[in-house]
Design a protein that fits this description.
Two copies of one chain form a homodimer. By secondary structure, the first copy, chain A, is of the alpha+beta class. Chain A is about 40% helix and about 15% strand. Chain A has one domain: Arc Repressor Mutant, subunit A (Orthogonal Bundle). In chain A, a hairpin with an 8-residue loop joins β1 and β2. Chain A is globular, with a radius of gyration of 18 Å. At the A-B interface, α1, α2, α6, β3 and β4 of A face α1, α2, α6, β3 and β4 of B. β3 of chain A pairs antiparallel with β5 of chain B, so a sheet runs across the interface. Chain B binds a DNA duplex (30 and 30 nucleotides) through α3 and α4. Chains A, B: InterPro entries: HTH_HxlR, WH-like_DNA-bd_sf, WH_DNA-bd_sf. Chains A, B: GO terms for molecular function: DNA binding. Chains A, B: Pfam families: HxlR (PF01638).
Chain lengths: ~150, ~150
Amino acid sequence: MVKRKSHKGDYCPSARSLDVIGDWWSLLIVRDAFDGLTRFSEFQRSLGIARNILATRLRALTERGILETVPAAEGARQEYRLTERGRDLFPVMVALRQFGERHLFAPGEKHSQLVERATGQAVRLDIRTEDGRPIGPDEAVILKVPEAGQA
Amino acid sequence: MVKRKSHKGDYCPSARSLDVIGDWWSLLIVRDAFDGLTRFSEFQRSLGIARNILATRLRALTERGILETVPAAEGARQEYRLTERGRDLFPVMVALRQFGERHLFAPGEKHSQLVERATGQAVRLDIRTEDGRPIGPDEAVILKVPEAGQA
DNA sequence: GGGATGAGTTTCAATATGAAACCGATTGAT
DNA sequence: ATCAATCGGTTTCATATTGAAACTCATCCC
């Protein structure tokens, strides 16, 4: 197999992001972190992930600056918390959620919801130009880096 | 290994989304599709993915309604195109791109950009409540489905 | 002290990935 | 019309990665 491909050197920012969080488990761990989980066993129980894989993923996310370990809350051991950088994945989570809500549930089927804590209002995401006009995929183009082939 | 875990039955829409496009390659294929690629060999060259893997992924994305094959443009064979559903992944792509731009490039390092075709303006994404107020991760909570444990 | 958790690591089997070879159908050039 | 090159895969085989379960050490709880 030689080795799983990496997109680290790609000039496309999406590709690099996927390189950091684009595996089966990482974003689910991040999701749980957004949801307030911090302990190894909490993640393990919530996700049903194998322990060795969880350990690997937590280490990778930590190395990549998405999570950080803080020595301990009170008891002992340590906690995994989202860094500033990790919190910047919020839009990614919301975008995935929105897609799932729209397309991956049967009509009437229950799903969890993301709401503003204070008011209970639904959280939405949208895409606009710099000056605030909403824009869809067809009106957008990727400008490539001149030298590089990759988008 | 028993089988790779699936999140299909999860009550969290993000998890289900990841089940559909959460592997190493799928979103990159989708990215290229947004960028206008349609042919097997175009994807293969652009991504440097092994052919057998590409074939598997294209089939999976098609089965899941993200891509569709249209019989032929003019010459022969067929093309892979984003479906309506596939185009709804646009926010996910933009979110990943924005994260990558912000955190995964050295200062001054070049990267591709997503702009409005007509004006060249940068495309941005933001998250708001239903009534339009911008909101960050700390002010949002996930409301779980009562019966289910998973978020 | 003794047992139950917590947080991993190790071991081992099953699965998925990647490279390269192979194949039939087109397309293109002569 | 013929021969080579390209397209769109599939097959095979070696290697990587994943997952389950067992096994360690600590620390908690009583």
